[in-house]
Give the backbone structure.
Amino acid sequence: MKPIKPIKKTVAGRFPRDKIYYIFFSLAVILTGLFVSNSYYLQVLTFIGINSILALSLNMLMGYAGQVSLGHAAFYGIGAYTTAILTVHYNLSPWLALPCAIFIAIFVAFLVGIPTLKLTGFYLGMGTLGFGMIVNIIFREWTDLTGGASGFVGIPSLELGPVSFYSMRNYFYLVWAALLLSIIVCKRLVNSRIGRALRSIHDSAHAAEAVGINTRNLKIQVFVLSAAFAALAGFLYAHLVSFISPGSFDFMMSVRIVTMVVIGGMASIWGSLLGASLLTLLPEWLHAFSDFEMVVYGLILMLIMIVLPQGLTKGLIDIYERSKKKDNS
Amino acid sequence: MNVQRKKTTAKFPLLKIESVYKAFGGVQALLDVSFDVEKGFIVGLIGPNGAGKTTLFNLIAGVYSPGRGRIIFDRADINKKKIYELVTCGISRTFQNVELFESMTVIENVMVGQHVITKCGFLGAISSLPWILKEERKAKEEAMELLAFVGLDKYADKKSSDLPFGWQRLLEIARALASKPKLLLLDEPAAGLNAVETRQLGELLKKILNRGVTMILVEHDMSLTMEISDKIVVLDQGEILAVGTPREIQSNEAVMTAYLGK
Amino acid sequence: MQEILQYIFSGITNGAIYAIIAVGFSLLYNSTEIINFAHGEFVMIGALSLVTLWGSFHLPLPLAFVLTIVVVSGTGLLFERFAIRTVKKPDHIVLVIITVGASIFLRGIAMLIWGKDAYSIPPFSSNPPIDIAGARLLIQSIWIIVISLLSVVALYFFYNKTLTGKAIRACAINKKAAWLTGIPSGKMVMLSFVLSIGMGAVAGLIIAPITMCSYDMGTMLGLKGFCAAMLGGLGSLWGALIGGFILGILEAMGVGFVSSSLKDAIAFVLLLLILFIRPGGIIQSKDVQRF
């Protein structure tokens, strides 16, 4: 038997440390909002926030519970289109449209989740892919309701009493506040009984059942949760850009969300932030390449996955530790 | 031995196997098997390869349901129960090849084992209300206590896959105990352990018995089985060959023939 | 009646194309368990290569055929060598992202070479359509059906009658055991890639005359071919063929009798249905366990 160094500190809670992170995070957001005045940068940062919520939501499903989804953009789209339709066609206040959007996403996720989550591994990926494609086709073809392929125009911007979120800075704060909230929710979940049960499904569905976890129910629950967050991201997106089209919620978007999670690092909450930032910034940087944009984007995706398949966070930590070991020996 | 006499006086057996039959396609794995497991016993399930031990074990653990016959646990029929429902009823198991949650720490593994005796759900976790935090704290304390019980409390924050194999087995037992089972099913707990570890395991199983947990044990290690079991069920070719105390089994001629051949 | 026959003709034509794309997916999945999301892009490159070689350079058709297949398979070879073999941790999800990355990359390359315009080329032969019970059957449709059936039959013989084909199958069943008997499994994987992508090239060749060819035509074709493969039973040659034809015909019927806006949805509804009812597909591969 290999001797193992015993650890003294055992029951030390990780909650206080999280609180410090949250405070740092809030400070960083507030300072960024104060010092960045260029509205283009603020807009990019806002997109990073929205994409982080998306990545986070998928990470709960994929990174923690180990259930791959290649159709996550569908829920993002459902959130965006629901609020668009309700606020424009039915003149509903956006703040009332938000719960409706989330509720519809939850409802759809529940209906779809029951048969789909019976599938495992690869087949689950394919099932979610099919679902995502069908939802996207509905966005494109139900022209009366969604505006069809040419898109949905004129989604109102958000207002809350005297505060108008038409200003990019305010919207930035709104999105990042929503992101912080999402992070707190996910962190709490991950470190709870539910989070442990989710991770146990990922490690061994077999053993999870044997300790009394109803894996089917739990998978559906986390699928629903992740759909709800995706719908929140969709809501924020729709009211930010005021124009949405099916192209923003297609198969490529689903893959982009998966890529954010994988590049950031599966089962890593701060990693999702990193992955989302990278995949949001990359196309912005690549605009400079104009016609070569797609080529370079594809190449970078492949390279990261070839070199650091476990994601940037874990991959870089590994490289760092290896180099440290070399220095020591 | 006299301890055992006293135990048999309990009126209802904890687990009652009633004429259970199971076939896979054309292969009959179990033919009409019946026996009782009394409360507070360690029952050893032995037999040559292919005798149907694993099938029987999996039937009790809910992996399969019997083709015919009934399995009654705590006076309730558990034939149709799902695997995860059995844990709520009070049946817990370990795996022959040790199935831990490898990405988790040692203590987290035990805490997953407490799934059915804790309540916090999605909303509870998100809200982190005082009673949830209290439950979490209490769960952690109990998990630590269980780790101390199997002797792994010093390694609570280690990743479970970093433990040596023998300790992983102990951890798996601690995880199985975390749901406070009435019946613990052990699938070859000594497989892959060396002589010292096997002896320690035997001690541990006796300690578990003192906590009031009944056990069923499928095991190849005869000396361990004979030493700790109160009752032994010998299976051969899907049928019960003999039931009795270790001493009775050791002197049973049919058993000798089945094991050694004529 | 005449209408139905017309729909069936167009369904079979499209079905043959889906079938041959599906065969490409199945071949590769069988020996490597990889789903190549860039497969559609190889179809696109095949079609556009033919546009250039035959349509612009006016090479003889057979030569253009061979050159196209060589070019596309060569690209596939490079893809396997540099993008797939170099992966350190061949997880499903990592491979999915790599092949999607490759598909974006290939689309970008195609856009650089051919621009964003759509091209069309004339059918392979200029005979007038045949009239069958009032329905018109294009000669190009016959070309498409014959070529795709021939390719599948050729593949069948290759896999069942030749030593190399058997070696690939052995690798698919058990890589290590095959390696122990002296089969170079790495080379077999490479060969599977070349064959699979070669099938993509063939699909591109036969589809070019009946559609507008542009750099972004591949993605949807690839996904639908994939649906056909799942429908028939991923990993099975005949399954791919059956899945392709069923998808093609149902799509034509759906467009004809319901609405053309349904066209793209049918493939994915079928995909979901088959996953929920019979995940192994119509022709269930014997060892579904593996998948």
